[in-house]
Amino acid sequence: MKYKILLLLLIAVISKTAFAQTVETVKNPNLPYHYLVHYPAGYKENPNKKYPLLMFLHGRSISGTDVEKVKSYGVIYEILRGLKIDFIVVAPQCQNGWDNSKLIQILDFTENNYHVDKNRVYITGMSMGGYGAWMFAGAYPNRFAAVAPVCGGGNIKDANNLKNMPHWVFHGAKDIPVPITESEKMVNAIRDAGNKRVEFTVYKDWGHSELVVVFSKKELYDWFLKFDRGLKETKPETKPETKPEPKLEPVLATIEQPKPKLEPKTSTLPLDKPAPQPQKEKEPEILVFEEPKKEKIVTVTKIDPPKKDPPPAYERPTLVQRKPEPAAKPKPTAKPKNKLNKRLENIKNWELWDHLK
Fold first, then answer.
1. Disulfide check for 35: which of 92, 189, 257, 325 has CB 3.0–4.6 Å away?
2. SS3 label, residue 187
3. Average pLDDT over the chain, rounded to whole?
4. Structurally, how many domains does the chain consist of?
């Protein structure tokens, strides 16, 4: 019995490590988000095979700098529990909400560095990740083949961009953190824009967190694989083969015609007249234009008048006449003392002083 239990535990550990080996943590300093990546079976053995790519965006509770928290729920969580899907799964971690300008860097990097079939790229997310999935797909509708938001929401202005993309929307009727109306307004706006491929699944008795079970359903991943972007691989143009033109061999003349002999010309002029001498060519006339005489410019220099010597400095007088000082005012005469004071001067008895006082 003990051996059976040990054998079962060993099998469980081996199976768990086997699944764990399919998920790797990537911390690239050149990328804005760290992420987890799952490789499908036979990925490394078949480097020439292209695989569909699925992006998973988490909710607010997993935000931070510990990317291992992304294993708490969602697609990666279900893969670690035994879900087998033939997708490359990329699950990034954000810090303060999802940013489209950062997500596009993750998408570009994964498409260029993994064996991704760009014709089959999908996106899903839950809660805040549901908002992020709709926002990202609305900003880059030409990069995704289908989208599946779970208990999320979006911007109804993106409905026109999302009208050509298949949707499968999930929400709980008793959801309190994200009311079901958030999904309803997006579904209605996308359908009004002309999209007829929108599925809306409502769980009447479920709230918010219960919808994590959606990612364990094999039906979701089979639904993704029904769609692609319809891209056609363009083969390089081949120029038509051009046959070399035949070389033309030169034709050699076999019959040579004799050249006519030139006879010397004889002069018919009479001998008594001298032969006319050749006329000299007239030299070309050179017209000389005389330049007009320039008038001499006389410069007149102004002569400044002679400077006058400055007036002599004012000499101060040696004698200073002072004003007479004012006469001193007479000192005021002392006021006459009161009669009481006069009397007090003659009193020497202090007791009497107190009495008079």
1. 92
2. helix
3. 77
4. 1
Find the domain containing 66 and state its range: 23-224
Contact 103, 123 (CB under 8 A): no
Backbone angles phi and psi of 311, in degrees to 5: -60, 145
Residue 55, classed as helix, strand or coil, is: strand
The length of the chain, given as a count of residues? 357
H helices of the chain, in order, are 2-20, 75-80, 100-113, 128-139, 181-192, 218-224, 339-345, 350-356
Q: Which residue in 69, 67, 68, 19 sits closest to 40, CA to CA?
A: 19
Longest dimension (CA), the chain: 190
- CA separation, residue 334 to residues 50, 331, 337, 338, 341 (Å): 128, 9, 9, 12, 14
- Tell me if 311 is assigned to some domain: no
Q: Are strands 167-172 and 116-126 parallel, antiparallel or unpaired?
A: unpaired
Residue 100 within a domain? yes
Residue 178 lies in a domain: yes
Q: Which of 132, 136, 128, 147 is nearest to 187 (CA)?
A: 147
Q: Which of 115, 76, 75, 123 is nearest to 98 (CA)?
A: 123
Distance, in Å, from the CA atom of 137 to the CA atom of 223, rounded to the nearest integer, reads 17
Instruction: Determine, yes or no, domain membership for 298.
Output: no
Reported as a single tens digit per residue, the pLDDT across 337-353 is 555 555 555 555 555 55
Q: Helix 100-113 vs helix 128-139: angle between axes, to the nearest 10 degrees?
A: 70
Cα–Cα distance, 153 to 128 (Å, whole number): 8
Chain segment 270-308, per-residue pLDDT in tens: 444 455 555 555 554 444 445 445 555 545 455 566 565
| Cα 164 off chain centre by | 27
